[in-house]
Amino acid sequence: MDNRIRKVVIVGGGTAGWMSAAALSKVLVNDYCKIELVESQSIGTVGVGEATIPQIATFNGLLGIDEDEFVRETKGTFKLGIEFVDWGKKGDSYVHPFGVYGVPIESVPFHHYWLKMHQEGRFERLEDFSLACKAAKAGKFTRPQNIPDSPLSQINYAFQFDAGLYAKYLRKYAEQRGVVRTEGKVVQVHQRSEDGFIESIELDSGKKIEGDLFIDCSGFRGLLIEQTLKTGYENWSHWLPCDRAIAVPCTKQGAPEPYTRSTARDAGWQWRIPLQHRTGNGHVYSSNYMSDDQAADVLLSNLDGEPLADLNKLRFETGRRNKFWNKNVVAIGLSSGFIEPLESTSIHLIQSGIAKLIGLFPSRDFDQVGIDKYNEQSIYEIEAIRDFIVLHYKATQRDDTPFWNYCRTMSVPDTLQNKIDLFESSGRIYRENEELFSEPSWLAVMFGQRITPKSYHPIVDAYDSTALHKYLSGIADVIDRSVNTMSSHEDFIRKHCIADKP
């Protein structure tokens, strides 16, 4: 008996919808099943997420996308990390790099050796031991080089791009592989009487679209997962109090930097994402501490250039669905939950949801064991990311506004507090169960925002301080010389992937 899925219906376009369509069209080959995406041009997409983390290269690799073509078509730039300004204290600045610090010695992480030297007053900046940090601030970029034992062989990078153009690019990819796009607004959802599974959606044109598996990419509305199936939502606003965002692009000024910037403001933070043709900007803030008009004034008064569009105003509630997969509906993207884009994780969560769906792809039996595993993995992943984002707000010494007073003194999840306590006591960081952010990421934020360990790994004292200083000085020198050999970010783009001018 052929029990395979015969029809996948994706409700909603945008980045989530077209990433889902592209990936499924790539793996469901040989007419395995039909894929139909329904979207309405009258319903806007959020589409403000323009920065990514390095894992997106895996997704593009799955699709077989040529990287230079992808960057050119999305008017993209390269990204070596994120600069955080005014987070620990006003006047502070640090970079969360993509990549490692230094070189481990005898299996003890490098930062413990640096901590010993730092406590002795020998080295001030941890960033001097990161190629990504140094290259980002110098405006340099190159892809990894085939040079053994060189920092240039370990370059880790992501992209900054126009999310609308990325969706358009993936739509073309998906339609070439048989995905059918249907224009229309969903006005009714029909469920099976016996078990509540969705059997079809009805459009404003009167057309009914039947399916076996439905993917909800309808954004914050959660048209299928919530409005129809009443799945429920876990609110995290007590840990992540920002609930509004305003976005606007502006004219670019000068060469695009190979990093995203996040600047803490009085009741939230502002992003700055340099693309080839413009700069993306947004202000994420808490409506409990700042009015919409005040937030707009803050954003507009801190742009590099002239605004290129009207303000795009968004309301959201941080948290997650109680289930990401309920009956025959899988929520992908904003319909599954929302964590503000402080560490550029929104597109990654779309990608990760798709990857887990492919790994646990069902038959028409919809085995509950596989559905439960999908939900278990999804919940673990988003809660680990949540903890990392909450860290940015908790780890601050700012007391200049009511918002920051709240963040500094709030209680946080035990899973996060345990990580902070361990680092404060001994400088140790442990990555739990393949969580997204690894030890260098936690180190960058905790040390960058003034959480200072009382001690370091005791094995470090097996090494003579003078010899250790010489060794670390050599590493810093190699990184400096490596950065000097790199081309400028602007020159690299001009040579490999410059976008066509409008």
Top keywords for this entry?
502 residues, alpha+beta, seven-stranded mixed sheet, six-stranded mixed sheet, 23 strands
How many strands, what sense, and barrel or not for the largest sheet?
7 strands, mixed
Rg over CA atoms, rounded to whole Å, is 23 Å
**Helix content estimate:** 25-40%
Strand line-up of the largest beta sheet:
5-4-15-16-17-14-18
List segments where confidence is low: pLDDT < 50 over at least 5 consecutive residues: none
> How many strands in all?
23
Percent range for β-strand residues: 15-25%
- Compute the average pLDDT: 95
Count of discrete alpha- or pi-helical segments spanning 4 or more residues: 14
First-to-last CA distance:
54 Å
Query: Structural class, judged by helices and strands?
Result: alpha+beta
Molecular shape: globular
